[in-house]
Amino acid sequence: MWLFLYALKFSDLVKYELDQLDKLRSNIENIKWKNGDLALLLIKRIAYCFNIPINSLDISILNRLFPQPCSGMSGFDYLISRTTKRPREVLQFVRQAHEFAVESGKVSINSDAIFKAEEDFSAWKLEHLCSEYKYIYPKMSDLLWSFRGQGPILGFDDVNDIISQYIKSEDVKTTPEWAKEAAKDIIQILYSIEFLGAERPKSARKRTGILKQFEFAYKRPSANVKSVTSFMVHPSVWSVLEIVAVGP
Fold first, then answer.
1. Which contacts qualify for 129-132: CB closer than 8 Å, 24 or more apart?
2. Which residues touch 200 (CB under 8 Å, ≥6 apart)?
3. pLDDT value of position 34
């Protein structure tokens, strides 16, 4: 996963300097994690920590670890929905929620512990996102913070207004190059860094639920979203940006 992310960001930095970028792309593998894969990873980590044979554990252990639903979802599914499905993020979130549960004298990770951990994780996620792209998209943090209290579902005009206000607030002399692009190109960037999700075409929706109506770059990294008219700020940053949550 880290090799893929490093290669992808490296290609972003040098793509305008290379005349045969396709040779680099051929060596980039896009790794996608499903909920089941992340559940198995967590179970394996639990087994390692407690020196339990892997074959003595099964997926049902998550029901005991996360016994309470959160906002109409199972505790584990809710936690996953607040990440961009990177193993590191899931483990960080679970570790924080576990610490809060232990502090409150619980033997499992209840909804209160998850919601409390979400506040910390959300702040970490936004901070990491800005750090991750600071060389490719300098000063991106200023734009992301402009979404505070906005959404989570936004039309094209809403996003365009936020971008316009951000650009107006910037000193022309210090405005980064990426911020001089057209609004549709900046929206494409926000999609590519997994900050905004794009609404799925109705014909492509296989499951119900508001979160399932939007897709993010970790699902379709090469999607062109410039013609999309409805977007969603990723749930991982709702808490830190004080965005009112919507249902599952």
1. 129/193, 129/194, 129/195, 129/237, 132/9, 132/193
2. 212, 213, 214, 215
3. 86
Per-residue pLDDT tens over the stretch 30-54: 667 888 889 888 988 887 776 767 6
DSSP 8-state assignment for residue 27? T
Return the residue matching tokens 């599952």. 248
User: 147: which residues sit within 8 A by CB, 6+ positions away?
Assistant: 162, 233, 241, 243
Q: State residue 14's pLDDT score.
A: 45
Position 2 scores a pLDDT of: 38
Q: Give the dihedral of Cα atoms 178, 179, 180, 185; nearest 10 deg.
A: 70
The low-confidence residues of the chain, meaning pLDDT below 50, are: 1-11, 13-18, 21
How far is residue 83's CA from residue 104's CA, in Å, rounded to a whole number?
A: 24
Q: Report the b/e string of 94-119 with b at 16+ CB within 10 A.
A: bebbbebbeeeeeeebbbebbbbbbe
Q: What is the pTM of this model?
A: 0.84
Q: Compute φ and ψ for 175, nearest 5 degrees.
A: -65, 125
Instruction: Describe the strand order of the beta sheet including 153-155 as a list of residue ranges.
Output: 153-155, 230-233, 196-199, 214-215
pLDDT at 207: 64
Query: What is the rounded CA–CA span in Å between residue 246 and residue 78?
Result: 12
For residues 25 and 229, give the distance between their C-alpha atoms in angstroms, rounded to a whole number: 29
Mean pLDDT over each residue of the chain, to the nearest integer: 86
3-state secondary structure 113-135: HHHHHHHHHHHHHHHHHHHHCCC
Yes or no: say if 232 and 197 are a contact pair by the CB < 8 Å rule: yes
